[in-house]
Amino acid sequence: MDLANTKYGPISGIKQNGYTVFKGIPYAKPPIGDLRFRAPEEIDPWDGVYQADTFKNKCMQSELPKEISFYIKEFYSNPEFMPECSEDSLYLNIWTPANVTSEKLPVAFWIHGGGFLGGFGSEMEFDGEAFCKQDVILVTINYRLGLLGFLAHEWLSEENEKGVSGNYGIMDQILALKWVYENIGAFGGDPENITVFGQSAGAVSVQTLISSPLTGNMINKAILQSGGGYKSPIIRNTNLKDAEKIGEEFINLSKIKSLKELREKSADELLALIEDYYLHRRQTGKEGLFFSPIIDGYLLVDGYDRLIENGEIKNIPYMLGCCKDDISITSEGGEHSALYQGGIGFSHKLEEIGRKPAYVYYFTRDLPGDDSGAFHSGELWYMFGTLKRSWRPNTIADYQLSDRMVTAWANFMKNGDPSQEWTPCTLNHPDVKEFNIE
Questions:
Q1: Mean pLDDT of the 101-113 span
Q2: Is position 309 within any domain?
Q3: Which of 10, 142, 230, 408 has the most crowded Cβ, counting Cβ within 10 A?
Q4: What is the rounded radius of gyration, in angstroms, for the C-alpha atoms of the chain?
């Protein structure tokens, strides 16, 4: 497949060995000028053939601080995979093994992590080749981050017809999902078989999407990796009023006098102001994910746990889990961590409300090359099949583990069952699938 005929016009991709990759497809108008701090707008059709041959800009974000230089070495050290920052960043990428549009292959829709402050859809650990070999189409997306993605303020709520503000980054994800739902058939995909999956903030995003009425019937399955779950400490149940107070604190600290002035600031000026605000928050002991999804009564109508308890999340197959040395909000780690227990709790709560329980996993492989263990994000190299890009001295057993994980993820995306002797985590049999080298 060299050309995909979408509702916006034809798109040309790059033919690879057994698949085609389409890089940097726009799914929304650039959220600049008057469109800054607004819901994303659908793009206009284009003339001619769109050349999807280059990964586009990542969303505006600060450089990673030196205290997490570990992740710079791990994922962000190769300049080949480091795009420029820009507000013009609402693009998606598609890897498809289809030769004709009629194949109706399952679709995997990936949402990157990064604390809602960083990351992008073309990071070096992400790639669709391994999924294409399993006859699964991979889509990765960019979405607005930090202040630009989640600023709430009464100025913005007053101009909005729904009386809400914030959640722009999640609305970007929803519009990207809509774009895929409406156009993936042109790439040989099945719009009725889309699995939304993500890690860390991407997993929180997935939980937001399966909890929002705005996603309708576009999601067929979901995977949450190291984020989300039931009674998860990573999820903040921030309501609109509290989010507006955070926005007001930022506006006051930045001495911005009007919404017009806020929109006239350059992206770089805003980035400098938000870094000053982060410093202020740290100095006053108010750290945490303060720019993140908001319970606004529109995109999210209630708290995450209550939506699960009341059966107001999508009734679809779920898979979720975490890593042995994952991010921890408390001193409790491993199988005692809130992330581990939150995955089991999510599955058990599904069963309690009459739904099918989830498949729960636990990644325990201590990655070779240092003493970082099975760290937060460590499983990404394995489940994307991109170990060859890693600096680590991976063994044959690591590649075999990667093959098992790619196959399990792909099987789940195809039919909701990862197989591999992996049973759901039920109340009577709280089984958790461990992934480690053999």
A1: 97
A2: yes
A3: 142
A4: 21
Is residue 286 over pLDDT 90?
Answer: no
Instruction: Report residue 6 as tokens.
Output: 């979408």
Taking CA atoms, 180 is separated from 117, 207, 421, in Å, by: 24, 19, 32
Both tokens of 298, joined, read 């529109």
| Cα separation, 243 vs 240, whole angstroms | 5
Residues 43-93 pLDDT 10s: 999 999 999 999 999 999 987 766 678 999 999 989 999 999 999 999 999
Q: Which residue has 């991010």 as its token pair? A: 327
Confidence at 177, pLDDT banded by 50, 70, 90: very high
In a domain, 274, yes or no: no
Q: Is residue 430 part of a domain?
A: yes
Domain of residue 122 covers 3-238+292-435
Give whole-number Cα distances, 414 to 97, 134, 418, 421, in Å: 14, 10, 9, 17
Cα dihedral sign for 201, 203, 209, 212? negative
d(CA 221, CA 197): 8
CATH number for position 136:
3.40.50.1820
* Residue 205, token pair as written in the block: 């995003």
pLDDT the model gives residue 380? 98
* 263 assigned to some structural domain: no
Q: How many domains does the chain have?
A: 1
Q: What is the pLDDT of residues 189-225, one digit of tens each?
A: 999 999 999 999 999 999 999 999 999 999 999 999 9
Burial classification of residue 135, based on how many CB atoms lie within 10 Å of its CB (0-12 exposed, 13-18 middle, 19 or more buried): middle
Classify strands 137-141 and 91-96 as parallel, antiparallel or unpaired: antiparallel
Alpha helices in 300-428 (DSSP H): 304-309, 338-352, 380-383, 396-415
pLDDT tens digits for 375-425?
A: 999 999 999 999 999 999 999 999 999 999 999 999 999 999 999 889 999
Half-sphere exposure of 42 (CA within 13 A, CB side): 9
Query: Which residue has tokens 């992206």?
Result: 267
Distance CA 381, CA 315 (A): 30
* Alpha-carbon gap, residue 173 to 154, rounded angstroms: 23
- Buried-state track 97-126, b at ≥16 Cβ within 10 A, e below 16: bbeebebebbbbbbbbbbbbbbbbbbbbbb
What's the Cα-to-Cα distance from 308 to each of 212, 233, 253, 351, rounded to whole Å?
11, 15, 37, 11
With CA atoms as reference, report the closest residue to 382 among 394, 370, 371.
394
